[in-house]
Amino acid sequence: METPDQIRERVLKWMPKARVEVLNCGPAGQHALLVHRDDIQEIARWLRDDAELRLDYCSNVTGVDWLPRKEKVKEGDKEIEKEFSGCLEVVYHLYSISKKHGPVVLRTRTGDRTEDTHVLSLTPIWRGCEFQEREVYDLYGVVFDGHPDLRRILMWDEFKDFPMRKDYVEPDDYEWEPTPHADVLDKAKRHYPANAFEMGPNAT
Length: 204
Known about the structure:
Layout lengths: L3 H11 L5 E6 L4 E6 L4 H10 L7 E10 L2 E7 L2 E7 L2 E10 L4 E9 L8 E3 L8 H12 L2 E3 L36 H7 L16
Parallel strand pairs: 2-7, 8-9
Antiparallel strand pairs: 1-2, 3-6, 4-5, 6-7
């Protein structure tokens, strides 16, 4: 199968203005194609339909929360500290059932973590993305434009916030916990009447 660099080169021949780069993702050295969110749907369709790749199956969709950060980067002969704004990232793992190869890792990012959290849904390209994009929406807050049924899938409708965000703070009000115990019980006690855990005739 072609390398991510080779795939990128062919994408750019087909769509010269596409914004796509190759990332080395972590110590495992798994390379990925990072595609601008405005180009993601067109490039995804090309990856599915290209005669050499035929990436007809999306096995996994997940999210990454990138907090604002500073990193040292090289510019020419100098190393400078550069600021990176935070964003949310969606990661797709693609395989070809017909060609028996993969994965190709495809990534795209939102504009930021708070106001501009939209990306295009890839459910129209790979139907298997439907429930998994809902999970990323539910846990990270990524809004998938064009998704056929975008609603929470794990948390209840009234739940606020997104539990997989790195700055998520779990509540200490566990009224919804039917049988609090251990650490949950300690937190729940703050919201119960003072004598709620007493036993005997004086308990109310």
